[in-house]
Amino acid sequence: MKKISVFVGVPNLSNQDKYGSYIGSVLNHIKAQETPFKVMEPYVTAPHSGKFQHGNRDRVKAIAGRMNVIVDKFLATDATHVFINDGDVEIPTHTIDTLLRHNVDIASGVYPSHNFDSVGAMSFGRMIKTHPCGFYRPRVWDSMRGQVFGEIDPWSGGTGCILIKRRVFARYHPKISPLRFTADDCSLDTWFWKRAQDAGFTARVDANIVCGHLPRYRLKDIDKWLNSGM
Fold first, then answer.
1. Which of the following CATH numbers is that of domain 5-225: 2.40.50.100, 3.90.550.40, 3.40.50.300, 3.90.1070.20?
2. What averages of pLDDT result for each successive group of 10 residues across the chain (230 residues)?
3. Which helix (H) or strand (E) holds 208?
4. Which of 84, 99, 106, 119 is most buried as measured by Cβ atoms within 10 A of its Cβ?
């Protein structure tokens, strides 16, 4: 049996982008992971030029490009899994170990939406099966606490703290391109979750792993913002 090893990638959107200032903290949280499995030195992508002529559409394309660079780098190694950590997501020390032990194709922790203060919701939820993009309604934290989702119904969410097995990115059908991150009419994150589960890959969302989401929701302040009465 091949030994488990994890390639870690951080998509660095731009040195001119506000998220570029968070990379140091993100890397420190990755290096603090507690697991007996091999976790490789984090790979941070080269930044995009930072010139987004068409606003958010260009930003999403840039993010997809950075994430696919991580996938290519991962496939050039002998690692069994890739862990993608967004440049504004701080992960708890048990994140990678817990996700590995699910032993599914795709596993993720959760993190608060950027407006958690007002809506109290995590950026994850049960996928709406009839929606062509796999759209979901963000799940209120109190209904997620301590649970693992995805065994019965398909779930969807972000890709900020996501662990993915190598086989997900292999060509599983001669007439279908290998799965990659794309920026089209659907959300980059939810579209990846939908296509992966439609292809038969197993997925879990573990609400026992609550990550910080910078700048407002720092992991060190988790007790303060997570239990603020939302």
1. 3.90.550.40
2. 90 67 92 98 83 63 90 98 96 98 97 90 90 88 93 92 97 85 86 94 97 95 80
3. strand 203-210
4. 99
Burial class for 197, CB neighbours closer than 10 Å (0-12, 13-18, 19+)? buried
CA distance 86 to 56: 17
Helix axes 56-75, 188-198, angle to 10 degrees: 50
| Dihedral of the alpha carbons of 63, 148, 24, 82, in degrees to the nearest 10 | -60
- CA–CA dist 154, 98 (Å, integer): 20
pTM beyond 0.85: the answer is yes
Domain borders along the chain are 5-225
In b/e form, how buried is each residue of 45-78, taking b as 16+ CB within 10 angstroms? bebbeeebeeeeeebbbbbbebbbbbbeebeeee
How many Å from the N-terminal Cα to the C-terminal Cα in the chain? Answer: 46
